[in-house]
Amino acid sequence: MLFNSREFIFIFLPLTVVGYLLMGRLNWRRGQIAWLVFCSFFYYGWRELRFVPLLSGAILVNFAAGWLLVTRSNPLLRRTVLVGGLCFNLALLAYFKYTNFFLQSVNALAGSHWPMFDIVLPLGISFFTFQKIAYLVDCYRGRAEAYNLLDFGLFVMFFPQLIAGPIVHHAELVPQFATRRWHRVHWRDITVGGTIFLIGLFKKVALADAIAPHASTVFGAAAAGQSIGFGDAWLGALAYTLQIYFDFSAYSDMAIGIARLFGIWLPLNFDSPYKSLNIIEFWRRWHITLSRFLRDYLYIPLGGNRKGKLRRYVNLMVTMLLGGLWHGAAWTFMVWGALHGLYLIVNHAWRHLRGAGSDRSIGVATGFSPARLASGALTFVAVVVAWVFFRADTFHAAKTLLLGMADVASLARPMVFEDDNRLLWVGGLLAGVFLLPNTQELMSRYKPALEYLRRFKSPFAQVRRHAALVWRPTPIWAAVIAAMSLAAFTQLSRVSEFIYYRF
Fold first, then answer.
1. pLDDT, tens digit, for every residue of 398-421?
2. How many angstroms separate the CA atoms of 312 and 27, rounded?
3. For 194, which DSSP code?
């Protein structure tokens, strides 16, 4: 069941909210939690019924492992439980996601002919696997409690973040279940959550899905071996850059908005990453909770920056390679991760040369200046180039498109895929990405996420401070949201998956 489907919007979500509110009127907190757990299982089972027993078993195993880690003091037992729990989670992920990738790689390298397995990837396995790994590690470190099974089940299964994140930390979610305000009806939460959800729905249906065919046309031609000229190549790459931006931004908004309907705040997962002035900042803005997980549970345990510059760079590359592999079982994803690892190494090396601890550490002057624009443009182009590998199905397709993007001489030739709408879509959406405030900025008066406060200065700060753009429950804003909703509802017949559902 997709967030942008009719059955979710008009049946499942209203019934879930009504049941939750009715139990809230009765002050039945445990009933509310049980109701959300039941609805979350139903939501997951709607498309993946065969994997409900697997997910239920994984919850029970991790709950038992966490309980042992918290309540037992024997060092050997605790280490054994931790290693066993981690191996259990990683084995599930490896089997379902990487078995055929491993066999294909062996066949390609060794010339063997191992048959592929008929394995279906459970939705959301990458997300809830990382979530449970973080919980077990924190239990071992003494940073988590032995939650009751109902709270732990909702922490893992809460349907807004179950399939494609954010990767919620237990300390962010479970304590909210115990607050007095959580089980009461707050119409502000309904209004704010509904508004955020509808903004996300508009982004997905009216923007991401609308630009997607332009990207698919060019990438499809590259996969077929067709020569791609400079203009077509860049417009295709930019179209996908915008598609994944609005697609992931839409899911992040919709997840936060749905959770808010139940009085729950989810962490921020998307924060205008294309406005970043360097790659370090980009990864603090793109898939924020994944970056946090990779930093806290991979990069830092590997040694982080504590063992010298060379080791730090190795750790960065290893972390990003595994981050790329997490996104998909293909070598193109590994190259995407390697490119970002290289970008981060160069960025950190540049900061070291410029002197850490000042604005000059990112290599640009403060304020709105040509240097900042150049830095932002370079970062954006680097991200676009990496997206080519992320989107392309094969290295050949990626090579074809990149050669076209570098073939400046072909700019004089007419474009093969002539489409005035494509130019309008790409140009208009790029302007919106760089000039308009994002959803949490629009909703900043009502604390839309756990970390809603701004953390980065930007040449576009004057737009963020523009009071007229901040959402309020006024007739004008009601008309704007109604128009966006109408535009989205009229296009619900062409339902498409969110890109991150595949990971």
1. 999 999 999 888 776 767 766 668
2. 52
3. H
